[in-house]
Amino acid sequence: MVLNVIKEMLSLEKSVLSWTYMTSSLSPRRAGLALGILFAAVHLIWSLFVALNLAQPLMDFVLQIHMLQVPVKALPFSFGNALGLIVITGVIGYVMGCILAWLWNKAGKSA
């Protein structure tokens, strides 16, 4: 039973790494939405950290584990800045996703 499942997972016909899968085209709109939503969500979480006064301890921790000491200070939460950050990074993510899909599709045609 377990061996059959492992064999099925490793079969080239159904593998995520199969040639057919790797050469299929990507929708620029879907890739853009996926990256845009990801970028916006990460910055929404960051905005929540700032609003809950958790950003400074997080930055201090990240810098410490990287053995860095940089004078960085989290500013007070601003709804307008947070909204702008989320929208701008979402748009940047969308554009990057579209470019990535376009490059993927171009590379697939030349292969």
What is the alpha-carbon Rg in Å? 21 Å
How many DSSP-defined strands?
A: 0
If you average the pLDDT, what whole number results? 87
Q: Percentage of helical residues?
A: over 70%
The 3D shape can be described as: extended
Low-confidence segments, given as residue ranges, are none
- What's the main sheet like? none
Number of domains: 1
β-strand amount = under 5%
Output the structural class. Answer: mainly alpha
Question: How many individual helices?
Answer: 5
Secondary-structure element order, as H and E? HHHHH
**Alpha-carbon distance between the two ends:** 38 Å
Summarize the structure.
Helices cover 72% and strands 0% of the residues.
Description of the structure:
The chain is an all-alpha fold. It has one domain (27-110). Helices cover 72% and strands 0% of the residues. It has five helices and no strands. It has helices at residues 2-10, 19-22, 28-51, 55-65, 79-110. The chain is extended, with a radius of gyration of 21 Å. The model has no long low-confidence stretch (mean pLDDT 87).
